[in-house]
Amino acid sequence: MNATPPVKMKIDFVSDVSCPWCVIGLRALEDALGRVSGQVQAELHFQPFELNPHMPAEGQDITEHLVEKYGLTSEQLQNNRENIRVRGQELGFTFTVGARNRVYNTFDAHRLLHWAEEEGRQLPLKEALFKAYFTDGENPGSHDVLTRVAGEVGLDKARAEQILASEEYAAEVRQREQFYQQQGISSVPAIIINDKHLISGGQPAEVFEQALRQIAAAG
To answer: pTM of the prediction?
Structure first.
């Protein structure tokens, strides 16, 4: 008796490298995909979204930024950070307390991720950029950081430097950003399965697993 082949799924993960809930959403999605590995064969694509597209290169103090943008109190900020830290720990990711003290522009990171997709290294670059920012407290807009991280995940450092020194992939990234904004995506993470099923936010693995199983069963 022949085994049923896994159902192929296209998953677009719309996110920013400076979004902590995107880390949590990705880890939970990967957990869920592991649980349905025999039933689902996923093709994962990371799509760009900038939380702060007008952020200057030097960035902004994170507490100042969050208070300005969301009107949060210091107590709310502390509670949010602890919630994120705990969720990350449960999923095997370290949000280092105090390491992330500034918010930066991430457009160049998205340009490198676009290139990394062509090179088949998008997932490892995405994960390495999350670690660089949230665990190590590095600037994901720094060309030195971006070049080094690209090399660490097996990409050509010289090619990364060349891309960052130019406007290469800028138009493609902006086009993708506009496309998802036009589709109504205004917050991230936004996970779109087969171009029609939307799951919003850093959901638990169980939520992703249930959705994957239902979509697979529907054929």
So the answer is: 0.96
